[in-house]
Inverse folding.
DNA sequence: TTCGATTTGTTGCTGGGCACAACATACGGG
DNA sequence: CCCGTATGTTGTGCCCAGCAACAAATCGAA
C-alpha cells in the first residue's frame, strides 16, 4: 500500500525498525483477527516473544488492538490470549464521484462497512461547484455518523472516473465530469487528508477476503468503458504514471469495428456496455438512460427472459472478455480474476464464458487452474475500496495513528 | 531482487536495520559509482552522516567499496572523497543453456563483463549427461578465469529455456532440452549456490543502464517463441508461479492461422521466427538450421538485399508485435520497451514499426511518449543477466558477503 | 596572506529497541 | 500432585542510529 503522504518513491530511505515492526505485528493481527496470540506473532515474524509483546502492548494502549479472552487449546501449556482488531478505533472515509451517482462510506479497522450512503444523480446536469458541494455535504454526514458510532475518521479517499495525479492529489482529467486539474480532495473535512485514485483501482481494493491474503488478481471493472485494477502480492500496482489497467482498448481484432479512440476492434467494442446493448438489439437511448445501473438492469431483464439476441450478445461479450483476460493473465502470471462493475450484474451469463476462455487459454492452466470470481460489491465497490485504502495506510504505518 | 535462498515470500519477517542500511548505502554507491561521497549518501538516505560513515567504512573493510581520491569541487568547504564499487571483489557466474549454444560469463560488482565464453552446439543431439558435463566444464573454466583475474565468485545463476521452480532450484520443464524436474544447479561448483530462472527473465536483467535507475520496462525476448521479461521499479516481476511474460500466445486475431498451442492467431504466428521465415518465402528447413543465429542472419541478409517479400514480412511482424506490445504497455502503464533476441538483429526493420504502433496505440502517449530501445546484448544477454542477478543479490544483502 | 565561512568526515556520548535468559503463570496428563 | 509444556513478563546487555562537538580541508574576501 502507498504510505500516504510519505513519498516513498523506492526503498531509498532509511528504515525505522519500530515503525516497521509495529506495522508487521498489526498486519498479522489483521490477517488472523481473533485467532492469533503474541506468541504466534513472535513465531511468524521471527521477532522475540518479548519484542512481540512490547509491540502488541503499544498497539493495545494505542487503541488499535484488543484482547478477546483466553482461547481454549488442545495442547498442553498455558492458554494464549487471543488478539483482535478493535472495531471502535480509527475508520476511513471513502467517496466515489461517478457519472450518475455519488457514494460515501465509512469502513472501520476490521474492514467492516459501518456507514454507506449512495445518491443517484446524473452529475452531467450539474456544475462543478454543485458536485463539490454534494461531496462536502455527504462527507460531513458520514463524518457525523462515524462520530455517533464512536469511530474516529483518520483519513479519506476519493475515487473518480478519470486520470489522477496521486502525488499532487489532483484530478488530471475526468472527461465525464468535465474536470481538469482539479484538487478535489480540498472539499473534504480538513482533519482528514485525502487520497485520490481511479475508480477501478479503488474498486480492486474492495474485495474483503483477498487483500489480507496477499493475493494477486485482476479486478475487472466494467462500466461504460472497461478497466482493471491490478493487485500484486496484496498491493495495488499503479504503473509508472498511475494509469495501469487500461484493458478497454486492447485490440481484439485489428480489422474489427472502429473505436472512438482511433483504433479498430478494441475490447470495449465487444464487451463494453454500449456494445452489448447494440448487439442485443436494444436501441441505445442516451437521453433517458441514467447511467450504469438502469441500463445493466435492462440487459439483465432481457437475458432472464431468454431473449435470444441478448443471450447471444452476452455470450459473445463473455468470450471476447475472457480471451482478453487470459492474455493478461499470461502476461502477468496471475491465477485469479474478479468480475466487477456491470459484469457482476451480468455474471450469470458472462462468468461461465469468461471461465471457459480463461481455463483453455491460460498457459499455466494444467498446473494451476485459474479461478474466476464475481465481485462482492456492486456500484459501492469504489467507495468501499477507497475507505479500505485508508485503513490499509493505517495498518501500513500505525505510528501515525498512535501519535494522535 | 530476490534475496537468494532466503524465502522472503512477503515482508512478513522482522527487519534487520543494519543489513538494510548497508544494502541501501551500497545501492547508492552502485548508482553513482565514483560520483558520490559519504555526505551524499547521508543526504539521500536521511541517515546521519556519522551513520553513513560507519556503513561505508564497513563496506570498505569488507572489500565492496573503495575511495577514489578527493573530488575537486566548485563550492566552498572540505572536498569530498569519492566512493566507487570495487572491481576486484565479488563476482557472479552466469550460465545460459540454450537449445543451440551454451554460454558462461563472469560479471564483477560494477556490472562489467569480465569473462565470456559461448560454445555453439545443438543440445538436441546430445544426452542430458553430456549437456550437464559441458556446463560443469565451462563453469570450472570460468571459475579459474575469475580467480586468475583476482575475482571471487560468490554465486551463480543458470538460465534455461523453459519453466523453472526457483524455490526448489529445479527445471520443471524444458521441452527443447528434454528436461523435466531436473535440479540443474547441482552441477555447478559447490562453493557457489545456484539461482535459476527463465532465459527471458534473466535477459531482461542484462541491460546495463536500466537497472540502476529503478526503471520499469518490458524486455521482449524473441527466439523461436516470443517471451518478455517484466521489470517494475528495477525489480524483475516473476508472477505468482514465475511464468510471467508469456506474450507469445497473446491473441492477435481470433480468426487467424492455427497455432500448435491449440488457439488461433497467436502473436508467434505473426512475429515469431518461423512465421517471419514463412512469410518471407524462405523454405523452413529444420534439418540444417542450427537454431537462432544462422536463421536470423539469413533473414537479415535478405532484408539488406531489399528482398520485397522479406521486407514485407518484417514490416508485418513489427506492426503486429508493436500493436501487441502497446496493449501490454497500456495494461501495465509502462513507457519503455527493449527489443532483444531476434528482434535485436532485425531491429533496423522491426523497431521503426514497433515504435510507430506503440506511439499511436499507447494511451498515455500524449502525456508521456513511450520509448523503444534495442537491446545491448544479443545471444549473451541471458548469461550476462544471470550473472548480474548474482551481483544484485550481493547489493541487496551485502552482509552475506561481508560474513565471508 | 589571513581569517571567516562552509562543507566533509570522525569521535564520544546517549538513548531506543531488540535479543536473551530467567521467571511467573496456567494449563494437560500421568 | 507433580512434571512437562506453552504463554507472557521482567531485567539485563548489546547493537546501532542520532546528536553534538571537533578536526580537516577548501573557497572567498579583506
Amino acid at each position: 500500500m502507498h504510505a500516504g503522504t510519505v513519498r516513498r518513491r523506492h526503498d531509498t530511505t532509511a528504515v525505522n525498525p519500530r515503525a516497521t515492526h509495529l506495522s508487521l505485528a498489526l498486519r498479522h493481527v489483521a490477517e488472523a483477527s481473533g485467532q492469533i496470540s503474541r506468541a504466534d506473532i513472535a513465531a511468524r515474524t521471527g521477532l522475540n516473544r518479548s519484542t512481540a509483546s512490547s509491540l502488541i502492548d503499544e498497539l493495545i494502549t494505542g487503541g488499535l488492538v484488543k484482547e478477546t479472552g483466553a482461547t481454549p487449546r488442545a495442547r498442553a501449556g498455558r492458554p494464549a490470549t487471543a488478539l483482535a482488531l478493535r472495531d471502535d478505533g480509527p475508520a476511513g472515509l471513502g467517496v466515489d464521484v461517478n457519472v450518475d451517482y455519488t457514494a460515501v462510506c465509512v469502513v472501520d479497522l476490521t474492514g467492516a462497512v459501518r456507514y454507506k450512503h449512495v445518491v443517484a444523480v446524473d452529475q452531467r446536469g450539474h456544475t462543478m461547484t454543485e458536485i463539490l458541494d454534494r461531496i462536502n455535504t455527504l462527507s460531513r454526514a458520514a463524518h457525523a455518523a462515524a462520530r455517533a458510532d464512536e469511530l474516529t475518521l483518520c483519513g479519506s479517499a476519493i475515487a473518480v472516473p478519470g486520470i489522477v495525479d496521486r502525488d499532487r492529489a489532483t484530478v488530471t482529467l475526468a472527461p465525464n465530469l468535465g474536470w481538469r486539474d482539479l484538487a478535489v480532495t480540498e472539499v473534504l473535512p480538513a482533519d482528514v487528508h485525502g487520497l485520490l485514485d481511479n475508480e477501478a483501482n479503488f474498486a480492486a481494493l474492495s474485495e474483503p477476503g483477498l487483500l489480507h491474503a496477499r493475493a494477486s488478481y485482476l479486478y475487472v471493472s466494467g462500466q461504460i468503458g472497461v478497466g482493471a485494477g491490478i493487485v500484486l502480492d496484496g498491493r495495488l500496482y499503479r504503473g509508472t504514471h498511475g494509469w495501469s489497467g487500461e484493458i478497454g482498448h486492447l485490440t481484439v481484432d485489428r480489422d474489427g469495428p472502429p473505436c472512438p479512440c482511433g483504433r479498430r476492434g478494441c475490447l470495449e467494442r465487444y464487451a463494453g456496455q454500449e456494445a452489448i446493448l447494440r448487439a442485443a438489439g436494444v436501441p441505445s437511448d442516451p437521453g433517458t438512460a441514467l447511467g450504469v445501473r438502469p441500463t445493466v438492469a435492462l440487459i439483465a431483464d432481457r437475458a432472464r427472459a431468454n431473449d435470444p439476441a441478448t443471450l447471444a450478445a452476452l455470450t459473445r461479450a463473455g468470450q471476447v472478455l475472457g480471451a482478453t483476460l487470459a492474455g493478461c493473465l499470461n502476461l502477468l502470471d496471475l491465477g485469479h480474476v474478479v468480475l466487477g462493475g456491470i459484469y457482476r450484474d451480468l455474471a450469470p451469463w458472462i462468468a461461465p464464458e469468461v471461465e471457459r476462455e480463461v481455463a483453455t487459454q491460460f498457459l499455466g492452466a494444467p498446473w494451476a487452474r485459474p479461478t474466476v470470481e464475481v465481485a462482492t460489491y456492486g456500484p459501492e465497490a469504489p467507495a468501499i475500496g477507497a475507505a479500505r485504502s485508508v485503513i490499509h495506510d493505517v495498518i501500513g504505518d500505525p505510528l501515525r495513528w498512535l501519535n494522535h
Q: What stands out?
A: The first strand of chain A starts at residue 65 and ends at 70. Chain A touches chain B through 60 residues (CB under 8 Å). Residues 14, 37-39, 49-50, 52-53, 73, 75-81 of chain A lie near DNA strand D (CB under 10 Å from a C1'). Residues 1-9, 286-293 of chain A have pLDDT under 50 and may be disordered.
